[in-house]
Amino acid sequence: MIDIKGITKSFGTLQVLKGIDLHIGKGEMVSIVGPSGAGKTTLLQIMGTLDRPDSGRIVIDGVDVGALGASRMAAFRNRHIGFVFQFHQLLPEFTAMENIMIPAYIAGTSNRDAARRAGELLDFMGLSHRAAHKPNELSGGEKQRVAVARALVNSPAVILADEPSGSLDTKNREELYQLFFELRDKFAQTFVIVTHDEQLAALTDRTVKMRDGLLDNAPAEGNINVNSFETI
Q1: CATH architecture of the region 2-198
Q2: pTM of the entire structure?
């Protein structure tokens, strides 16, 4: 699903990524861990085409994204990549349903089809009864579920999550973890998750460790594959 070869990135004289090679398979859930300043978020932003590397190549779902111009890259990003951030970033003036529909509108989906897809996702998230509520009327966990639904509305090839549980309490963190695994199991959804949460990292299929702009040279760490969240 994602092939990264020789990615480097500098900001001024600070070299943040120093040659990253990484392969992530379809349906794989990978966590990226490491100390602050290791380059995790920069790598995720490049993976999500929110920034371009200085050198190297990244192929997502068979497309060499570095070869795309700005407009084609934006269209590719909207259709093929979903984002979940630590803070939900929902638009406060829109309802839960409308927030979910926005990426579908941008992709040119009709109002009818966007509403149908958003309704299906709200139902899957157990939030059908909150469809007409605005973000300030939702709990923290509900906001994050709406954000996940928004990331899924265009059926993207990959979900990129940056500290998705960082602002949640224990109960909502565990519910978010369960949701991620349900999505992976039901839709073979590929996830790449930057996290400091050791519990979440331990549950993913593989943990990639970063330090000082490089991947850890130790062999790739495969985590315990759990079929049910209740087993942890």
Answers
A1: 3-Layer(aba) Sandwich (3.40)
A2: 0.82
